[in-house]
Amino acid sequence: MAGEHEIQLAGASASAARRAAEDAIADVLRIEAKYSRFRDDSVTSRINAAAGAAPVAVDDETYALLNYAGQCHAQSDGLFDITSGVLRRAWNFRRDPPAIPSSAELAAILPLIAWRDVEWSERSVRLPRAGMEIDFGGIGKEYAADRVATILLGHGMRHGFVNLGGDIRAIGPQPDGTPWRAGIRHPRVDGVAIAAFDLAEGALATSGDYERYFDLGGKRYCHILDPRTGRPVTHWQSVSVAAPLCVVAGSCATIAMLRGEGATAFLDAQGLAWLGVAADGTIHPPSAR
Amino acid sequence: MDVIRVERPHEKRGGALLLSALALPGVVPSAAAQSAPDKGIFEVQYLSYRDWQPGRNRMKVDAPAFYTLMPIGDTWVVEGGMVYDAMSGASPLYFNVLSGASIGEYRTAGDIKVTKYVGDQAVSFGAFVSSEQDFLSRGASLNVQYFSEDRNRTWLLGVAGNNDRINAVNGVAPNSKRNSLEFVVGITQALSPNDIVQSNLTYYTGHGYYSDPYKPLDTRPTERQTWAWLTRYNHYFADQDATLRLGYRLLFDSFGSTSNALDVAWTQALPWYGIAVTPALRFYTQTSADFYKNPPFPLGYVDGQNYSADTRLASFGAITAGLTIAAPLWDGWNVALRADYYRQDPDWQIFGSGSPGIQIFAARWFQVNLTKNF
Question: Taking the model in full, what pTM does it have?
Answer without folding.
Answer: 0.55
